[in-house]
Amino acid sequence: MASNFKTEVEEEERELPETFSRIVVGENAERLDPRSSVLAREQRDMQNMEKLLTKTFEELGALADATGMPIIQENGQRTFGPRPNDTRTPMKGTEVFVGKLPKYMNEAHVYNVFRPIGEIYQIRLMLDFNGHNRGFCFVQYYNTEDAKWAIATLNHYEIAEGRPIGVTGSVDNCKLFIGGIPKDKSEAEIFLELSRVTDNLVRVLAKAGRTSETVNRGFAFAEYESHKDAAMARRKMIPGKILMWGKLVHVDWAEPEHPETVNRNYGLSRTVQQRTSGKFYNFFDVLVPMDPMVHMNPMASMNHVNPMASINHMLPMKPDYGMQGNLACFPNPFNFV
């Protein structure tokens, strides 16, 4: 009996460390081994990402089936609409910018919120490398009245609890500034080269040099059929992607948005705005060379001169439509009507 009891005790003592290790180490494995913690977190993130993408594809499939509008993804954006064989062409001023969009939302959520305002022509959602939205999109209606009403009623609307969106008029900009062009190139040569790498180019404007009519000033303006075409061309010509005449060119919007609008739409912090303001003003120095400073009476207060003042007064004033009443509750996000 004594020997049997001793054997049982020895077996229990051998099992105790293994049991203790399984209980304590298993529950605190992430804390004891940082590498396993990082790996486990990455695995969870990957699983969540796969679930979100799967759910997104299902919702987009249901949206396309219910509306008959195609969904196409290309060059960092996903386009919903227009309908096939739709001959109607929206005029300028029918597109709105939607900012502060939650990352997990897709066109189905946007369509459900903006469709009650009026018939939607197209939704363009900007995507990151993981296939998630970048926090903003563009919604285009068929007429300007619907776009104005969307701005008036949906700006600051809570698309989710505690998540208000920003809605404002989209800058219908179809012109690009192309810098770094060889000065011996004519407008026709620039047009042919841009047509080689971009689509739907309408015209090119290259001003003649100040000393000779046979050379340009090293930059030109390219106009496209639509804002979408211009945006796609700008994305294609990001520095490092395409060479023109064997060299890199600098591409940006010919008419940048007002700094306050950019800050409001994209949610830029003051630090980011200050860091980019220098480049913004330098960009305008290329377009509008500044005259030498004229020394004036020191009594005149010149300490707070706004370098954008000469440009701001030429920009059109955005009408304030105000809030035209409270927005009614919307139906189920995927009850497409």
The assigned CATH architecture of the domain at 50-169 is 2-Layer Sandwich
* Largest sheet data: 6 strands, antiparallel
SS-derived structural category: alpha+beta
The CATH superfamily label of the domain at 50-169 reads RRM (RNA recognition motif) domain
Low-confidence runs of at least 5 consecutive residues: 258-335
Q: Any idea what the radius of gyration is? A: 29 Å
Task: Write up what this structure looks like.
This protein is an alpha+beta fold and 337 residues long. Among the domains are: 120 residues, Alpha-Beta Plaits, CATH 3.30.70.330; 113 residues, RRM (RNA recognition motif) domain (Alpha-Beta Plaits, 2-Layer Sandwich), CATH 3.30.70.330. It is 40% helix and 18% strand. The strands form 3 sheets. The chain has a 6-stranded antiparallel β-sheet. It is globular, with a radius of gyration of 29 Å.
In a nutshell, what does this entry contain?
This protein is 40% helix and 18% strand. The protein has 337 residues and is an alpha+beta fold.
List the SSEs and their pairings.
Blueprint: H1 2-27, H2 29-32, H3 34-67, E1 71-74, E2 77-80, E3 95-99, H4 107-114, E4 120-127, E5 133-141, H5 144-154, E6 158-160, E7 163-164, E8 166-169, E9 175-179, H6 187-197, E10 201-205, E11 219-224, H7 227-236, E12 250-253, H8 259-266, H9 270-287, H10 309-312
Antiparallel strand pairs: 1-2, 2-4, 3-5, 3-8, 4-5, 6-7, 9-11, 9-12, 10-11
